[in-house]
Amino acid sequence: MNRRHWLGASLGAIGAVGAGVAASLSPMAAWASNSGWPNRPIRMVVPFPAGGSTDMVARYLAQGLGERLGAPVVVDNRAGAAGNIGTDAVAKAAPDGYTIGLVTSGPLVNNKFLYKSMPFDGDKDLTPIALVCEIPMVFVSNPEQLKVRSLKEFVEAAKAKPSAFSVATPGNGTIGHLALADLSQTVGVRLQDVPYRGDTPALTDLLGGVVQAISAPVSTFIPNIQAGKLRGLAVTSGTRFPGLPDVPTAKEQGIDQTATVWFAMVGPAGMPAPMVQRLNAEINRLLESPQGKSKLQQYGGVVASGAPALLRQRIEADGQKWQRVIKTAQIKLD
After folding, report:
1. Rounded-to-integer distance, Cα 61 and Cα 189, Å
2. pLDDT at 52
3. Residue 28's pLDDT is what?
4. Which residues are CB-contacts of 312 (< 8 A; sequence separation ≥ 6)?
5. Which pTM was predicted?
C-alpha cells in the first residue's frame, strides 16, 4: 500500500470510530454539548410570596440546580390569584429553558375547577418537568379543649352533635378546605368550615380555643405537635409522615381519605425534550440525596421524584378526584 492509500484508509478508520462514538452518545448528552444551554441566568418563578414552604423549596432547588447546571438560577416570586398569576407567567414565557416554575397542585389542578375562567390552560400551555415533593394534610386539635385522640373519634363525636364542632382551614379553595370537604363527603357528616387567611391565624385561634380543629398542610404544625401543644388526629397521606411518626394516617383509622399538596417543576409548552430530561435528571439527583430528603422534611415535604410522565399522570388523577369534591361541595372562588 502506498503512502496516499495508507493515509486515506487511516482517516477512514478514524472517521468510522468517531461516528461510532457519536452514535453511542445519548441524545441528551449530544444536545447538551452542542446547544450551549444554559449560558445565562435561569428564572424560576414561584407563584406564592417569599417565606412560605414553596418559596423555601424553590430556593433550595435554585441553589442546587445552579451548581449542577453551571448557571445561576434566580427565584422570582409572582404571587396572586391562588398561584394563577405566577403560573401564567411561566405559561407565556419563551420555551428556551430560561424560565421555569415551581408550582403547586393548586394552579396546576384545582384552580380550573374553582375559577370560572383561567388565564392559562395547564394541559396545553405547560411542559411537565418533574414532581418535587408532596406535603400531607393534617387534622389537628387542641388537647386542652378537645379530648378526642384520633380523627376517628372526632368524626364519631361530630356525627353525634355536628353543630358543636368547627374546623378551621387556611381559606376558601385551599387544599385544607378541599380536604375538609372531602372528609365530610367520605364520612357522611357535614363538618363546619371556618376559613382563615392562612395557617397562622387559624393556629392562633386553635390554641385559644376558638375552633376545635384545623385541616391544613402539616408544615406549620410540626413544632407544636412535637411539643405536645397540639394533637395530630391524622395525616392524610398514603403512609405516615416521617417527621411525625406517631401520628396515624386517616386510612389506618378506617377513613378512606388521601389529600396532599404537591410541588412540581414545569416550563412553557414546547420546551425541547433533551432540556426537560436534563432538568428532570438534575432535580431528581438533588431530591434523592440524603441532604435533599432531610431538607424537604424540614418543610413538611416528602420526596416525590420521577419522570415527567409521572407528573402528567398525577395531574390527570388529581383532576378527576378534586373536580368531584369541588362540584359536590359547590366551592367557587369567583
Report:
1. 41
2. 87
3. 52
4. 128
5. 0.86
